[in-house]
Amino acid sequence: MRIQRIDHLVLTVTDLDRTVDFYTKGLGMRVETVDEGRRVLSFGGQRIHLHEAGREVDPKATRPTPGSGDLCLVTDSPLAEVREHLTGLGVTVELGPVRRTGAMGPMTSIYVRDPDDNLIEVASYRREPTAS
């Protein structure tokens, strides 16, 4: 057996509307409604399924907790534009741009937090300037 890719992951959140707003307006994802009204965020060929804390869908993680996520999302946009867009929406960039190593090699990243304080790394495999 060989695993090919991640299809989706699940984030447990405190406020579905606030989370959808952040990921759609801030990160350009699409929101979809599936399976009896569940909301999912779609981008590329992946999804983030959203579970509201206290109303998770079974089966679920043993301890679903808002704010426990740490995700790296890849963009093909210049990080300077991403940073400007996010700060224009009032999102604080905690770190970056900084050099990191991702699944495909060297990349440059910035770090922000979503409404539940999940750490969101936005990375680019382009050659980009980094903070010194």
UniProtKB/TrEMBL annotation:
Source domain of life: Bacteria
Gene3D superfamilies, A to Z: 2,3-Dihydroxybiphenyl 1,2-Dioxygenase, domain 1
Keywords carried by this UniProt record: Dioxygenase, Oxidoreductase
MF (Gene Ontology): dioxygenase activity
InterPro entries: Glyas_Bleomycin-R_OHBP_Dase, Glyas_Fos-R_dOase_dom, GlyoxalaseI/FosfomycinResist, VOC_core
Domain VOC residue range list: 5-125
Coiled-coil spans in chain: none
Pfam families, per database record: Glyoxalase
Keyword Manganese: no
Keyword Disulfide bond included in the entry's annotation: no
Protein name in the entry: Catechol 2,3-dioxygenase
